[in-house]
Design goal:
Blueprint (H helix, E strand, L loop, with lengths): L5 H15 L13 E6 L10 H19 L3 E3 L3 E2 L4 H10 L3 H18 L10 E2 L3 H16 L3 E11 L4 E3 L18 E10 L5 H6 L1 H4 L5 H11 L1 E11 L6 E5 L10 E4 L4 H8 L3 H14 L4 H4 L9 E8 L6 E6 L11 E4 L5 H10 L7 E2 L37 E2 L10 H15 L2 E7 L4 E2 L1 E2 L9 E3 L5 E3 L29 H4 E3 L6 E4 L3 E2 L1 H4 L3 H4 L12 H7 L4 E5 L5 H15 L12 E4 L2 E3 L2 E2 L10 H8 L1 H10 L7 E2 L5 H17 L13 H19 L3 H21 L6 H14 L4 H10 L24 E7 L2 E8 L5 H10 L1 H7 L4 E7 L3 E6 L1
Parallel strand pairs: 1-2, 1-24, 3-4, 10-12, 24-25, 26-28, 29-32
Antiparallel strand pairs: 5-6, 5-7, 7-17, 8-9, 8-11, 8-16, 10-13, 11-12, 14-15, 18-23, 19-20, 19-22, 21-22, 26-27, 29-30, 31-32
Helix pairs in contact: 1-25, 2-20, 3-4, 19-20, 20-21, 21-23, 21-24, 21-25, 22-23, 22-24, 23-24, 24-25
The structure holds ligand ANZ.
The site of ligand ANZ has 18 residues, from β9 and β13.
Family: Belongs to the class-I aminoacyl-tRNA synthetase family.
Pfam family, one: Anticodon_1
Subcellular location: Cytoplasm
Length: about 850
């Protein structure tokens, strides 16, 4: 055999695979059971990078594994090709985003083919193709018909650099934009929303179905994001106002401890209450509001911030005891959560307590947790607020009482436990008509309007009288206009508004002059259902074929980065449920199992051009070959862990692959040799791998499988060079097993070995072999030999060896004789067959 020439082998097999199409799933008569393995599709922002290489190597192990197990595996690939990077690049270079996008796609496609991911290349899709985004528009219309797409005026997150709105999910914890890194500000705009909040309960409850098959971290991130709170709405009458002020509370049990109320400064309620107050209050409030609007929502939610606020000189009445309670406005209460107003119970809520201590408001304990707040607590007598509020003792603990206990100072609730009191108070409020059980979600509706060009046009037309007219389905797709003459630069309104010819349309209802909606959809709409489009990507009559969905979906295994733990997964789950409700699919969760691969780092940190630690995938492939890079990704550790490229050894992987390949050239027996005649010791190693690999792969322990195949290569090499020799049947059996295992990780080397072993390609379609159980029985176990409890040697012994035999063998070992020397042996402890401990004096 000639040398192991990586470049030659890669070119040779790519051509063969292109012709054989081993990963095609288009045969309708295929009777194999099905699996749908999906990698999150890439954004075409240049060539593939190391992160892609990791994700696609790992996803491919899974796809190839199921194929080897006899499944018809759908493993498609496409491009998430709308979005800002293309548009920004186009603006910078003065070109059309289409050119940039499709050039990058072509580049990535070539790299993907070289990378030998086992994709079905007949099912490729690009979300920026009109053939694809037509169906985004269809989906929009379906949601619109169901009342799930609507427009509202609201404060939105505004990215001042990219000049576009952001979903809450795109605002990072530090208040900056996930896209541009700019500090996000608030701006009032009329925007399109998808009503994901209608699905909040189901999105939360259905996570239970995914327990165990999704990473628990992702499940809890989703749960927190949806953030369900259960409690009650309570109505407080306001002096000088006809309608009550309703608050949401998770602690209706503490209603007797409500000593003041707080409304969000940026709420309509605050504006209304202030309007009915004194000019002094109005001036103070106006100043306060101006200050508040400089802060981000994140800052406002920071519980440790110094409390600020303004007394509105308005009063509410506590519905359970008729007490007058003062109404304040403070920014720790958010306008768009619950009702934008709270009843403050400082004894039992930390934020309220901090506020009460700062402004000298009374604190009344209503749950005796056996650790009452120390310091002077103003006592409210006969429902009257004391005239002069004594200052709170600064030596007090300042810690609110959150724990359970018996209710006190609470009239009919006295003596009840906290949870009983919550229940009882809700009943009392309902009976009195002043409150009711309620729940609230942190989840907000999904803002989908974007003031950008490179996205899906919204299929709505604005009539002469401002009426909204959905574009009839037979007029879809509404294609993007050419960019000639269009100014794509961000300016706060969509660049499409400048495409005069495109904007002016006939009203579909009566032909009167009308205008298109100039906004485009959030690209998360595109990726919320793409897994269904892969089932029939070329169908121009419908988004997807429900019969195909029935066959393939939901996705059996989804693979992708944890960066999508909230956004993308939540939206895809939501759209799936909508499609279920519309009768298009019969399942309610899109991804039955999820694997989040780690990141590829360099010297301990994320790779980036600015840090100068960027490792280019193309250089790595050039230097080590595709197989070695893929194998390194799988061998580096558990797939969920990050890989530091500085700590791994792709050249060692390359060397190992050459070693494995040489085995195939050394085998001299023919394919029809009888396995049973082979060397038993080597056969045992082979069959242990055959037995263990499936469980290990299904448990994502790819690195362990690689370690085991390395062990088998060593054992086979030993058998050839200093054992039964290259003609032994066990050598062939072992080498074939090496090739079959490597076909999951290093497809080129495996295919090359398979050919050398005398089989036609593709190895990907040969099945895994069953282990022979008679070869799995342990013939020997390792017995540890210690002197005074310290490990000194090991011996391979029969599992049935007696203590006397073990002791005799152990005493005779040279290492033991040396260690014991002339010391006297006090006793020998034997735990057959695993341990001999020789204790000296
Ligand atoms: C009285 C009370 C007493 C409360 C007590 C808590 C403890 P989650 O779990 O986040 O839903 N709240 C309600 N609306 C709010 C808003 N718009 N901005 C800020 N806080 C708001 O929390 C619900 C609790 O947060 C509610 O229950 C309310 O304070 C507050 F010992 O009411 B609670």
């Amino acid at each position: 055999a000639s040398g192991y020439d990586v470049a030659r082998i890669q070119a040779k097999w790519q051509a063969v695979w292109d012709e054989l199409k081993p990963f095609s799933t288009s045969d309708p008569d295929d009777t194999r059971p099905r699996k749908y393995v999906l990698d999150m599709f890439p954004y075409p922002s240049g060539d593939l990078h190391m992160g892609h290489a990791e994700a696609y190597a790992l996803g491919d192990v899974i796809a190839r594994y199921w194929r080897q197990q006899g499944f018809n595996v759908l493993h498609p690939i496409g491009w998430d090709s709308f979005g800002l990077p293309a548009e920004n690049a186009a603006i910078k270079r003065g070109v059309d985003p289409r050119g940039w996008t499709y050039d990058n796609i072509e580049q990535q496609k070539r790299s993907m083919k070289l990378y030998a991911a086992s994709f079905d290349w007949d099912r490729v899709l690009h979300t920026s193709d009109p053939e694809y985004y037509k169906w985004n528009q269809w989906l929009f219309l379906k949601l619109y018909e169901k009342g799930l797409a609507y427009r509202k005026d609201s404060w939105v997150n505004w990215d001042p650099v990219d000049q576009t709105v952001l979903a809450n999910e795109q605002v990072l914890a530090d208040g900056t934009s996930e896209r541009s890194g700019a500090m996000v500000v608030k701006k009032k705009l009329t925007q399109w929303y998808f009503k994901i909040t209608d699905y909040a309960d189901r999105l939360l409850d259905d996570l239970n179905q995914l327990e165990g098959s999704w990473p628990s971290k992702v499940l809890s991130m989703q749960r927190n994001w949806i953030g369900r709170s259960v409690g009650a709405d309570v109505d407080f009458m306001i002096e000088g106002r006809d309608t009550p002020l309703t608050v949401f509370t998770t602690r209706p049990d503490t209603l007797h401890g409500a000593t003041f109320m707080v409304v969000a400064p940026d709420s309509e309620l605050a504006a209304e209450l202030v309007a009915g107050s004194t000019p002094e209050v109005q001036a103070a409030f106006a100043d306060y509001l101006a200050e508040v609007q400089k802060n981000t929502e994140i800052e406002r939610q920071d519980a440790t911030r110094e409390k600020t606020g303004v007394f509105l000189e308005r009063w509410a009445v506590n519905p359970v005891n008729g007490e007058r309670v003062p109404i304040w406005s403070a920014d720790y209460v958010l306008a768009d959560y619950g009702h934008g107003a709270i009843m403050a119970v400082p004894a039992h809520d930390q934020r309220d307590l901090d506020f009460a201590r700062k402004f000298g408001l009374p604190v009344r304990v209503v749950v005796d947790t056996n650790a009452p707040i120390t310091g002077a607590i103003p006592v409210i007598v006969d429902g009257q607020m004391p005239e002069d509020l004594p200052p709170l003792d600064p030596g007090g603990t300042g810690v609110a009482l959150h724990g359970d206990g018996r209710m006190i100072n609470s009239g009919p609730l006295d003596g009840l436990s906290k949870s009983n009191a919550i229940h009882r108070m809700t009943e009392l409020l309902e009976a009195a008509g002043t409150g009711r059980a309620a729940k609230n979600f942190r989840l907000r509706d999904w803002l989908i309007s974007r003031q950008r060009f490179w996205g899906t046009p919204i299929p709505i037309v604005h009539g002469e009288n401002g009426e909204l007219v959905p574009v009839p389905e037979d007029q879809l797709p509404i294609e993007l206009p050419p960019t000639e003459g269009l100014d794509l630069a961000p300016k706060g309104t969509s660049p499409l508004g400048g495409a005069e010819e495109w904007m002016a349309v006939a009203n579909p209802v009566d032909g009167s002059p009308a205008r298109r909606d100039p906004d485009t959809m959030d690209t998360f709409v595109d990726s919320s259902w793409y897994f269904l489009r892969f089932l029939n990507p070329h169908d121009d009559a419908r988004a997807f074929d429900p019969a195909e969905a029935e066959k393939w979906a939901p996705v059996d295994q989804y693979v992708g980065g944890v960066t999508h733990a909230i956004l993308h997964l939540l939206y895809a789950r939501f759209i799936t449920k909508v499609l279920f409700d519309l009768g298009y699919v019969t399942f309610t969760e899109p991804f039955s199992a999820l694997l989040n691969q780690g990141m590829v780092l360099m010297d301990g940190s994320a790779m980036s051009k600015s840090k100068g630690n960027l490792v280019r995938l193309s250089d790595q492939l050039e230097e080590h070959g595709v197989d070695a890079v893929r194998l390194t990704m799988a061998f580096a550790g558990p797939p969920e862990d990050d890989i530091d490229w500085a700590d791994v050894a792709p050249h060692a992987s390359a060397k190992f692959l050459a070693r494995a390949w040489r085995l195939a050239h050394d085998v001299t027996s023919s394919p029809d040799v009888d396995w049973k005649t082979g060397d038993a010791t080597l056969r045992r190693v082979t069959h242990h791998l055959l037995a263990d690999a499936p469980g290990l792969i299904e448990g994502f322990k790819f690195n362990v499988v690689v370690a085991r195949v390395m062990e088998l290569v060593n054992a086979t090499r030993k058998a050839i060079d200093s054992g039964p020799g290259a003609a032994d049947a066990a050598v062939r059996e072992a080498t074939e097993t090496v090739a079959l295992t490597l076909s999951l990780f290093a497809p080129y080397a495996a295919e090359e070995m398979w050919e050398a072993l005398g089989y036609p390609p593709p190895i990907a379609l040969y099945g895994w072999r069953k282990a022979d159980p008679t070869l799995l029985v342990a013939e020997s176990v390792t017995c540890v030999v210690q002197v005074d409890g310290k490990l000194r040697d090991r011996i391979e012994v029969s599992p049935r060896a007696t203590p006397a035999e073990l002791e005799a063998q152990a005493r005779a070992l040279p290492a033991i004789v040396r260690t014991v020397g002339d010391r006297e042996i006090a006793k020998v402890i034997v735990r057959a067959p695993r341990l001999v401990n020789i204790v000296t004096r």
